[in-house]
Amino acid sequence: MQWLQFIHHTPAKAAAASFRVGDDVRVWYRILEQGKERFAQFEGIVIRYRGQGPSKTFTVRRVTYGEGVERVFPVDAKVISRIEVLRKGKVKRSRLYFLRDVIGKTRIAAAQRSSGAISMEGIVPVIIKPTDVDAAPEKSEGAVAAARKPADTPASSA
């Protein structure tokens, strides 16, 4: 394995080992475009950390506009400028592939319901419908009264 270290020429980063699977991280990486350099960020949960030596990689997953997006980053890559740990996670697995089946915030809502933090049983949704007066304020009062009159009553001729 010494030849891999000779080829990659990258010393191990001490800061890269400060996160684990289950942590929410923000990865800042460099993008080179037409001679310019800019930084982009990818924020999500680490679902996998694998490999050893210079071939270590980690996978970050996030849900954007209802679509799950995963990205694999090499730990010792020169394009990664920094990795911020936003929140430490407590997991019992080394691979969190089950998060691919979870959509949006359903796992958060299910966890809150089971812990009793938020009870949805006693809540009744209230729907407020706009009246005809609110919908058409430019109508005259006579037109609104005529619109509210039931259709089965005959109109007076006097």
Task: Outline the structure in words.
The protein contains 4 helices and 5 strands; from the N terminus they run αβββββααα. With 158 residues, it is an alpha+beta fold. The chain has a 5-stranded antiparallel β-sheet with strand order 4-3-2-1-5, with no helix packed on it. The chain is extended and about 95 Å long. The model has no long low-confidence stretch (mean pLDDT 74).
CATH architectural name: Roll
Order of adjacent strands in the largest pleated sheet: 4-3-2-1-5
Portion of residues within helices: 10-25%
Radius of gyration (CA) equals: 29 Å
Number of strands: 5
Low-confidence stretches: none
CATH class: Mainly Beta
Biggest sheet statistics: 5 strands, antiparallel
Number of domains: 1
Distance between the ends:
105 Å
The succession of helices and strands, N to C, reads HEEEEEHHH
Mean pLDDT: 74
Assembly state (oligomeric): single chain
Q: Give the strand content.
A: 25-35%
Q: Could you outline the blueprint of secondary structure elements for this entry?
A:
Elements lengths: L1 H7 L15 E10 L2 E15 L6 E8 L2 E8 L5 E8 L18 H10 L16 H4 L5 H8 L10
Antiparallel strand pairs: 1-2, 1-5, 2-3, 3-4
